[in-house]
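Q: Please design a sequence for this.
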């Protein structure tokens, strides 16, 4: 992919207008029970009295803790399921540490589906990876650049070919921040932010952060690219 034409868009929370019910197309979730806290479920954060932001819960660490994208909310903000029930609160945001990951403290007494997480995973170029997002559901691809690279987001739209990254639907916490990401070929869209990335259909190795805009290969053909933050960047005290 030619760096001169690479622009990435942070998969900022998809806006949902509650007054008219506008939302991204519904996709079948990994679990059919919306009351079960599980990877791949749609989560929402109120942005105004009548609107919400939509993201995806990426990984359930245990009965009290889960992960999503850092740009999906600030520390102290509450998250809700599609029924409007509060599921937890963002208690740590790692964007300032160059990791687009937020830690969610879950409300006690909820049913949870705990994920296998490989905190020390080192993926290889060409290794199969997949994600399940609240907007686009399941998509698969392979790793392009296994070594995490630092990208920076700015507000969209921004003219010119030199922009490395831009964030949709400001305000986004990723705007003017930099985050370490691994590049892969699976598809993602707004609202998929925070989805768990699985290696070889197994344990979760990352959290979805962004997608590429206007990315082309050496023959100037458009290609699909998404970026995820490795879970290895989460401090051991938060795992």
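A: Design:
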């Amino acid at each position: 992919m030619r760096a001169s034409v690479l622009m990435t868009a942070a998969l900022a929370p998809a806006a949902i207008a509650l007054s008219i019910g506008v939302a991204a197309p519904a996709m079948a979730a990994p679990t059919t029970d919306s009351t079960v806290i599980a990877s791949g479920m749609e989560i929402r954060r109120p942005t105004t009295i009548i609107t919400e932001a939509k993201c995806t819960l990426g990984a359930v660490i245990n009965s009290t803790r889960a992960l999503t994208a850092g740009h999906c909310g600030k520390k102290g903000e509450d998250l809700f399921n599609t029924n409007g029930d509060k599921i937890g609160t963002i208690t740590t945001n790692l964007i300032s540490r160059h990791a687009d990951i937020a830690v969610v403290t879950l409300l006690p007494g909820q049913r949870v589906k705990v994920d296998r997480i490989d905190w020390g995973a080192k993926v290889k170029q060409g290794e199969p990876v997949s994600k399940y997002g609240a907007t686009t559901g399941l998509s698969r691809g392979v790793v392009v650049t296994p070594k995490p690279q630092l990208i920076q987001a700015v507000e969209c739209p921004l003219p010119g070919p030199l922009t490395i990254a831009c964030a949709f639907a400001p305000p986004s916490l990723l705007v003017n921040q930099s985050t370490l990401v691994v590049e892969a070929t699976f598809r993602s869209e707004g609202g998929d932010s925070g989805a768990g990335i699985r290696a070889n259909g197994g344990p979760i190795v990352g959290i979805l952060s962004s997608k590429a805009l206007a990315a082309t290969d050496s023959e100037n053909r458009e290609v699909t690219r998404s970026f995820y933050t490795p879970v290895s960047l989460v401090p051991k005290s938060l795992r």
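Q: Thanks. Anything notable?
A: Residues 3-11+116-238 form a domain with the Thrombin, subunit H fold (CATH 2.40.10.10). Confidence is low (pLDDT under 50) at residues 1-8, 15-29, 158-171.
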